Write a sequence for this structure.
């Protein structure tokens, strides 16, 4: 039995065998050299640390201050320009919607940021995702809701607007966003105050009628809503509105009233309308009503008024079960204010 190899000879022999076996004997022994310790920074005295901390906070505070002052100045300038004493503003028509023709290609860039900041983009998404079956979007404009539709749920889509220019922007957007959905979409350049033809696939009307930010720009909002009631399916049809108008607060309504004419002159929309009153006067049945942004953003879900044919059917059903109520009682309108808050 031979002597076992020592630890050191065992550990050095293996790698040397492979790379340079002939140098094995002549390699100098490894030498241990301690590493230099990392340089240490002396801790600053408490006063110096406090000064550094305050320097670090100064820049963000300065930026925040400049931003607040900037927003304040910008809002004041807008307010001054919108409330300027211009006799021409007294003659702005109730229908200033021709402005959309000129602004069509810059419309989106003008509203993108403010809609995102006020949560309107999120509400558009929420509303559009409710659509299914045969959809009509009224006053569809530049197609700000297009991206949010789930086309797999849509049997047909009808996009309507009286402005050919706004609709042209929307059409381009639809082609980019839903290239697969080209056969069952109809583009209608017409006023929503005129009769609206349902798609050939659904002669009794639309399952969903969506309208966003449009009651502000028509001179006859009640008539427009009533017309939507005519084209929604009498049974199961829904009309969804996302609108802007008067607030819960008198001071804000004062600002809206003072600036409305100048805003309408520039943008084609009267932003001080009482959406609740318009909805009430339309006679449509309110299913849901919610308000956001100090009450200026209105989410409204409506049902069409039952048609005479349907009223007769309901009356028949009521007498079949021995009910004493006539058709008027059975289809009584829910007051819109019952859904308040
Ligand atoms: C403020 S823009 C809103 C566009 C789009 N709905 C949106 O949410 O961005 C108002 C739109 O309503 C359209 N409009 C106004 N009155 C209309 C009417 N009587 N019939 C159809 N479209 C109308 C305008 O042409 C314009 O495109």
């Amino acid at each position: 039995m031979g002597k076992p190899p020592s630890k050191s000879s065992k550990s050095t022999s293996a790698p040397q065998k492979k790379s340079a076996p002939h140098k094995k004997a002549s390699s100098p022994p490894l030498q241990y050299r301690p590493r230099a310790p990392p340089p240490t920074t002396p801790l600053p005295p408490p006063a110096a640390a406090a000064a550094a901390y305050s320097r670090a906070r100064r820049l963000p505070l300065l930026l925040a201050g400049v931003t607040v002052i900037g927003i304040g100045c910008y809002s004041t300038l807008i307010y001054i320009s919108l409330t300027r004493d211009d006799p021409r503003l007294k003659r702005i028509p109730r229908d200033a919607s021709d402005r959309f023709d000129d602004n069509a290609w810059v419309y989106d860039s003008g509203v993108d940021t403010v809609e995102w900041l006020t949560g309107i983009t999120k509400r558009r998404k929420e509303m559009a995702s409710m659509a299914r079956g045969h959809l009509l979007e009224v006053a569809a404009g530049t197609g700000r809701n297009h991206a949010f539709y789930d086309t797999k749920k849509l049997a047909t889509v009808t996009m309507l607007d009286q402005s050919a220019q706004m609709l042209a922007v929307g059409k381009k957007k639809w082609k980019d966003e839903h290239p697969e959905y080209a056969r069952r979409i109809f583009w209608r350049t017409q006023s929503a105050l005129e009769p609206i033809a349902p798609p050939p696939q659904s002669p009794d009307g639309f399952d969903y009628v969506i309208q966003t930010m449009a009651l502000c720009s028509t001179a006859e909002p009640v008539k427009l809503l009533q017309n939507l009631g005519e084209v929604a399916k009498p049974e199961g049809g829904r009309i969804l509105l996302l609108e802007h108008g008067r607030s819960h607060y008198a001071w804000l309504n004062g600002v809206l009233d003072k600036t409305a004419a100048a805003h309408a002159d520039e943008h084609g929309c009267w932003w001080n309308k009482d959406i609740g009153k318009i909805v009430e006067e339309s006679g449509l049945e309110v299913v849901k009503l919610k308000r956001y942004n100090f009450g200026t953003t209105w989410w409204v879900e409506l049902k069409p008024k039952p048609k005479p044919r349907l009223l007769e059917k309901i009356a028949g059903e009521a007498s079949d079960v021995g009910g004493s109520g006539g058709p008027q009682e059975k289809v009584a309108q829910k007051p819109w204010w019952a859904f308040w808050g």
